[in-house]
User: Fold this.
Amino acid sequence: MSRKDRKVTLRTSVGFGLTDIMGGGAFTIIGAWLLFFYTTFVGLTPVEAASIISIARVVDAIISLFIGSLTDNFLKNKLGRKFGRRRFFLLIGSPLMLTYILLWVTGMNYWYYLFTYLLFEVVAALVLIPWETLPSEMTKDFNERTKMSTARMFISGTGTFLATFVPGLLISYFGNDNSYAYFINGAFFAVLFAVCVFIAYKSTWENELSPEEEKALLANSNEPRSFSKTVNSIVEVLAGYVSTFKIKSFRKHLAIYIFSFTAKDVFNGVFIFFCVYALNISAATGANLLSLSIIGIPTTILSGILFAKIGPSNLFKIAYSTMIVCLLSFWAIYLVKPSSMIVVLFVIAGIYQIGRSMLEFTPWNVYPFIPDVDEIVTKQRREGLFAAVMTFFRKTSVAIATMIVGFVLEFGGFVKGQTTQSPEAIQTIVYTLVIGTIVLLLIALFIAFTFKLNKQTHAILVNEIERLKNNGSKSDVDPKTKEVVEELTGYHYDNIWDSEVAESEKWKIS
Assistant:
């Protein structure tokens, strides 16, 4: 069977989605526990611990920019043609997942922890960036892509649950003061990640090139490359990244994604500190509260239904509003400390996880449709480019947010290794958790009100692309289609489906 005739089944979708056991699990553990692990068991200050995450993610973000372009052009060599330009990186990434174990070793110096964390970040990027493009490679059908994205987020929810539940079990078993629990946790997940990534490699395929496309690609790859051509190719890559911001829907999508996920990062990074020092409950109880992320698994199914019925914009609004109410409730618990505090905390944490699941579900369900919006402008398929830009800004924002959290904690009076903290340090933890997270969510919520890409507008866009591909005249466009295309792209209709216009404006972002 030709690859273009293959259907995306439930089994295919699950196999594809297993990579997000790593994507959802590894960084949930890192976000919730790594700062705590560094400051409690390794002996680093909050600023030192935060700087490791920040430096590694900035370096990794820069490297990630080139990974997208690398995978877009990887068919030019034999490995890409044999294993696939995207899937090859899943194949080599599977055994490299074992580097995750190295993060959780104690007794090393600052440079060891910086190097090992940077190493894992790069390995994760080598897997996640090409993997994120596969739905666009495998099918153009909205429902099939939604099936894949829903399976992905369902599995990501499972990964998030395991990433909070398993550490809680291990900490309860080994004790709150035993670092061995963290090492065992790292080893377990490293093996799990390796297996899941390999299954994803075996379960997926890529878009099939026509003989003409493959011939042109090979001819281009055999051309001798001078230094000036190499420099020009780098400039072209950078220009391509800048050009993504010309797409109006992508600008809004990226802003919503960055602000909302950074809000989630701030919450995750401070929540265990909030539990241990502000509420005076154990780290194991904090882990159990986070393990209510299991609620996100059935919520993912609901999110998939709502995504198609009410659109991503409304799903964003529900998610952010729910989380804001829960954050205010956490603040109230800290102020009042009711006698039934633990029970109330579990109720609030459960509702929070519903909103959190919707927050995580929506952006990566929107992403597969962004390259379609770009295609009607540039006549190109640039999935890897958009995935790399999203990854770059995501990692950069995490780096900045983590560094800020580290500075805020340290200058707010937090002292490493102490079982109790000063009132000033506790207030700093509380305000960072509540106010910091809410402000970021409010910004994302405001932008979500203006986001217009949904199932209906996407169908209009794709139909117009097919009409233009079949030599349809731009002068024959109907008013509704013209309005939708202009709203989604940010271009005047006369300038879409025009490679020269797209090329001439590549460096402009206005």
DSSP finds 21 helices and no strands in the chain.
